[in-house]
Design a protein that fits this description.
InterPro entries: Polyketide_cyclase/dehydratase (IPR019587), START-like_dom_sf (IPR023393). Helices cover 25% and strands 36% of the residues. It has 174 residues and is α+β, with helices and mostly antiparallel strands. It has a 7-stranded antiparallel sheet with strand order 1-7-6-5-4-3-2, covered by helices on one side.
Length: 174
């Protein structure tokens, strides 16, 4: 019996290891802005105009559409760019969601991402809360990604992108 157990253990140890793909990561950031929802929404509602308030971007260009399927190209300060596509837009609820359409890990270390932006009433009179949340996968979906394209790099980049954007928006609107 002991030999059988040893044989099974050796057999199992020599089986190839089957690694699974990456797991989805998440990021969420919010900020309170001392301005009414209408004023904050007026600044963020044009999907392709994010570079007007986001300091990480050199420029943003798009088709001007605030409807599902609308596209924008974001050019980062390093001159690398990605393309995103609008999935959902609701003027009355002050929210929209979009996804990565064309990836570029040199620009942003995700292979796919979806993001939701929402502007809601804040805690005090005349204030707003802006929330960004995302679900995404790292830039290299292989089993052994380099450090700059692993889960930690993707989480760090998305979180910092949200924080920088929200700070830029607050500075512009207040």
């Amino acid at each position: 019996m002991r030999n059988l157990c040893l044989s099974i253990a050796l057999f199992c140890a020599t089986l190839p290891t089957y690694a699974h793909g990456p797991t989805p990561q998440k990021a969420k950031e919010s900020i309170v802005i001392h301005a009414p929802v209408a004023k904050v929404w007026a600044e963020v509602k044009q999907f392709d105009a994010i570079a007007n308030w986001h300091p990480d971007l050199k420029k943003s260009e798009g088709d001007g559409s605030n409807q599902s399927g609308g596209k924008r190209t974001l050019t980062f300060q390093n001159d690398q760019s990605i393309v995103e596509e609008l999935d959902y837009y609701n003027e009355q609820e002050h929210e929209y969601s979009y996804r990565l359409k064309t990836e570029n890990p040199q620009a942003f270390p995700t292979s796919s991402h979806t993001v939701e932006l929402k502007v809601s009433d804040g805690d005090g009179e005349g204030s707003s809360t802006v929330t960004l949340k995302s679900r995404f996968y790292r830039g290299d979906t292989g089993n052994t990604p380099p450090e700059n394209l692993n889960d930690e790099a993707a989480v760090k980049a998305m979180t910092q992108f949200f924080k920088n954007g929200l700070a830029g928006l607050k500075q512009k609107v207040e």
